[in-house]
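Morning. Coffee machine broken again, so started the prediction first thing and wrote up yesterday's gels while waiting. Chain of 494 residues, entered below exactly as on the submission form.
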Amino acid sequence: MKTRLLIASGCLSLLLTGCGQGPNTESTSNASTPDTAKIVDAASKVDVSDMQVNFNVPVEYFTLDNGLKVVLSKDDTAPIVTVAVYYNIGFRNEPKDRTGFAHLFEHMMFQGSENLGKMEFIKLVNDNGGVLNGSTRFDFTNYFEIIPAHKLETFLWAEADRMKGLAITQDNLTNQQGVVKNEVKVNVLNQPYGGFPWLDMPQYAFNNWYNAHNFYGDLADLDAANLEDVDAFFNMYYSPNNAVLAVVGDIEVAEAKVLVEKYFASIPSADLAPQPDLTELRQEKEKVFNKFDKLAPKPAYAFAYKMPPRDTPEYYAMGIIDQILVQGEDSLLYQELVKNKQITGSVGGGINYLLGNMFNYNGPMLWMSSFTHDDNVTQEAITTAIDNVISQLQEKPLTDDEMSRAIVKIRSSLFDAVDGFYGFGRADLLASFALFDNDPNKINELEKNFKQVTPEIITKTVKEYLRPTNRTILTVTPGEAPEDKSDTAAEQGE
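Came back before lunch.
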């Protein structure tokens, strides 16, 4: 399962932990958004305060007696349904001696349950004309199917079957250990810019092990996993009271509710594992690292800032700042680094960059950007150009027109997300808000929350969160590292 979907600017993406990619060298991260020029032109004529709010997603939300959170959302645009199950376990809180285990376990969920043998879940989807995928993220692991609407009952049964328990053999485990180890080798170790910046940056920007370890997994840790680990992990995290079921599409809500209760209500809840402390202390000093990459054809540069706490005014301000700085060819960093300075051919970036969107995480997070550049461009020149752009936001409040343009782009992105990929975009947002906030109706408050951000909040947020002492810079130097330490990064300036 290697699907990667980008929906909306700011990165609503489905990205397996194992599907890494290098710095954005071809296009900006909002390539799937509508025509930016048209949006900007329209926005310049709009007072955002007067925009009618019509972002309204139907939400039916309830919790079964066993703790399973259920979100139903009717959309009869097409005769299809998305069934998505989100478990509150990601690579951020996997065991310390089992790095990569959350992703490995994602693979194990397709290796057999009581009534569906190895890979039979996938065959069932394919035989019914559907598509499916799964992914492992910072704070959840998800599984979804997009299927014909009349097959809803079949796939509620199938998801309930594997939530009840797995039937995994040592052969299956050994096979999937090999698959995941091969993903590490193909997508990271033997790939130009492998793991840069999505896998690398958290390891250098964060200090808390849970936020900063190798999410893809150390090869020795992957080899050490055994069936007892699989059973313990399943019993600890894959219970209904640690999950959300989202059903989006051409459904009758009352009928769907009956089916959910029929197949999921009898699954017993479990005693949940305590959540680790994810706290990150305030960063007071800029961090600068370099990584050697013998496969990289050009140098690369990435920078990241720690985000404000989730669901605060500053958090929504960062969503607007993200639009202004890196989303689209009208963004300030694109204009400065590509058009004016010709440092690079493209600029990518975002919140939860390449691993999700700004809404589907529940702990410390980074806003980052990355790009490749020619050998003759110095790191100092790049940093100076970035600082000059950011200082504009620190020193000069945004105008009403600038705020309007950003809000219009966000608004367009939200609509793209809700309508994206046959209901998965909507299911992703609903499941995330249910999982982390116990309130999927927050999806209908997003536009309001962004509109409440003032230029003053923008300025305050830039000064506090886009300060150099809250920044981590990671560069890539092509070639072998001294003493063949090509898999390590060295801190500079210490």
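Residues 291 and 476 are 5 Å apart (CA to CA). Going to sketch it on the whiteboard this afternoon.
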